[in-house]
Structure formats: structure tokens, C-alpha cells
Amino acid sequence: xxxxxxxxxxxxxxxxxxxxxxxxxxxxxxxxxxxxxxxxxxxxxxxxxxxxxxxxxxxxxxxxxxxxxxxxxxxxxxxxxxxxxxxxxxxxxxxxxxxxxxxxxxxxxxxxxxxxxxxxxxxxxxxxxxxxxxxxxxxxxxxxxxxxxxxxxxxxxxxxxxxxxxxxxxxxxxxxxxxxxxxxxxxxxxxxxxxxxxxxxxxxxxxxxxxxxxxxxxxxxxxxxxxxxxxxxxxxxxxxxxxxxxxxxxxxxxxxxxxxxxxxxxxxxxxxxxxxxxxxxxxxxxxxxxxxxxxxxxxxxx
Length: 302
What we know:
Blueprint: H1 3-16, H2 19-25, H3 30-44, E1 49-51, E2 56-58, H4 60-87, E3 92-98, H5 100-117, E4 121-127, E5 141-145, E6 153-161, E7 163-167, H6 169-175, E8 189-192, E9 200-205, E10 213-216, E11 222-223, H7 226-234, E12 239-243, H8 244-252, E13 257-258, E14 263-265, E15 268-275, H9 282-297
Parallel strand pairs: 3-4, 3-5, 8-11, 8-12
Antiparallel strand pairs: 1-2, 5-15, 6-15, 7-12, 7-13, 9-10, 9-14
Helix pairs in contact: 1-2, 1-3, 1-4, 2-3, 5-9
């Protein structure tokens, strides 16, 4: 006998409430469905269903067997879907959310190559430093520079984001250069308002030795956009912590100076975030894999 077919017939009889309804659904006959269930009962040596002229119900052992059948059939369906997705080409609209600077500096330059490699994918790129609700806004994957806090989401690590503390020469000429983290207290510090601990900066001595040093900072400006903070620092407004890939060219040009070189700021992890699911859509996996590969080839953020 076809045991899997009989199990599926049994499950649909229970779910539809009758042999005739299950038969209509499967383009079969009531007698055929009844024979399948009877053969299953004969194989198991147990009665699964009790029938009367008015109703159909499961026996105690039938209820237990039904739950196991549903689980088994579900696993098989998911396995088949996974194989089909692996063989198919990724396609459809991919909605990607990312911080403005990261999107402009890292995603936009590789997007044309990604679209050439995956011609059946259409990308909807949303650049904003605001927190995006992936489910509510229908976002497939978001790039975030923070630890994952929502257990309904999954994070794939892209890289650790090194931060450096910088100021312009004109600011340092006017207010002096801090030599250690505690020297920051009297300085005008420009903070990124999207971080959980906005006014606390964290440091370690170079080489990673010693305890973390947490310093409360303050200033006359806070902002939710890294590019705007960079411009404020270039204009001599104050001191800021920014990713090395945002400021390295300005340091090389002498427009910015890295202060407290003997101390390193704790890096923020950059992650690709997507809703939790048993199987990740192929278009999402393809994009994250491609982004991670290209980032691994690019040393500008390290």
C-alpha cells in the first residue's frame, strides 16, 4: 500500500470532517478514500476513526496518530519546498533597508553587479537611519549596526564596525587634545542619537588589555545621521566617534585627527537582519551571501 498517500487521506478526512469532502478535494471517490484509511488501520492494527450516520470522530489512538501524521507531512512538504527553491533561480522584489551612509558606500556600488547576477530579482532599497519594523513594512532584510534585540528576527554577522574618535585640527587648536577617555568630559562631543546608550562612549586600551572604560559625554548637538555628524566634525564643532571607513580619507588628508590613539572604541557589529522562518527565501540568502562576499573583498571598513 501507499502508506504516505493513506496518511494524507486520513489527515484530510479529519480536517474536512468527512470521507466525501476529502474525496472531492483529491478528485477521487468516497470509496477509494475509505479504503485507504481502512488499509492504514489494518497496517497499524488500530482503529483511527469512529463512524456513525451523523458524525465522524477520532479514537484516542487516532488523535495521537493524527498529530504525528500532520508533523511528518509538514516536514516532507517543507523539505520538498526547500529542494525546489535550491533548484530555482531567485526571483521577486527584494526590499532592503540600510543606514544612509552604509547604503551609499557599500550597497549602491555593488548593486549593479548583483542585479546582473540575479536578473529575476528587483531591489527596493530604502536608506534611512531610522529603525524599521521589518514585518510591518514588508522589509526582507535590514542592515543594522547593533546587537540583535528582537528574538523574532535572525541576524547574520557581516563584520565588526571599528569606531575611531576624531576631531578637526581647528577644534583641537582651540580646545586642546584629549589624551585619555576621561579627558573627554569637558569637550563638546557630538553623539549619534540612534544608539541605545547615546551619551556613553566605551573604550579599551590599545591591544585589548584591561577593563572597558565607559565615559559619559555631552555636547551641544546630537544627530541620527552619521554623514551629518561627519560634517559637523569637519566644521570644527566638536569630537565624535565614527566608523573608520567614514573618516580614513579625511585622516589621510589631515582634515581630521584621530585622538587618543592609545585607546580603541568598542566596535559595533554590522548584521543583516531578517524575519525568523524555517527556510529563508532564496532571494534573501542570495543577497546576504553576495553582500558578505563583497565586504570580505573590501578592506576599507576594517
